[in-house]
Amino acid sequence: MIWVSVVLRRTVEMVNEYELYLEASTRGYHAYFKDATVYIGEILFCELEPDNQHSKYAVVVKNEDDSIVGHVPAELSKIFNKFLSEYGKIEAECIGNRFNKGRGNGLELPVDYRLVGNARYLKKLLKELQEKNTESNYNWKLSTVQKCRV
């Protein structure tokens, strides 16, 4: 009975949730890959990291073992930090092998971030991300805002 109740509640919650996908990367994998292996297709989780010494907006990316695999890039961290604090949740699916672009960012993992939350806020966020992407040539791939698949 309890299991059915949890499943039904989660299904009702998802009906009111929307999602937005943003293809980018997770940075800093070079500092963590000895302790945290990541596989293509693996779902990672984003969390606030308020005690980070380098940025008050840091968002850490962890695997299912709760091991750190990297951080959200600085150009996204303030936006993601606010989103996690006030509006929803963020997952990241690893979509390729680690790489180094040679710009001082170390090893990066290509990921597809999935932001889940309120439709109105996600639409506002999408517009902000599109403008930032255009102005700065980040080459992020952005989806439209859509209802969560149940």
TrEMBL record:
Molecular function terms from GO: hydrolase activity, acting on acid anhydrides, in phosphorus-containing anhydrides; nucleic acid binding; zinc ion binding
* Domain (HIRAN) ranges: 19-119
Cite the Gene3D superfamilies for this sequence: 3.30.70.2330
Could you list this entry's UniProt keywords, alphabetically sorted. Hydrolase, Metal-binding
Q: Please give the InterPro entries that the UniProt record associates with this protein.
A: HIRAN (IPR014905)
Per the record's keyword annotation, is Hydrolase included, yes or no?
yes
Which domain of life does the protein's organism represent? Eukaryota
Q: What is this protein called?
A: HIRAN domain-containing protein
Species whose genome carries this gene: Stylophora pistillata (Smooth cauliflower coral)
**What taxonomic lineage is listed for the species of origin?**
Eukaryota, Metazoa, Cnidaria, Anthozoa, Hexacorallia
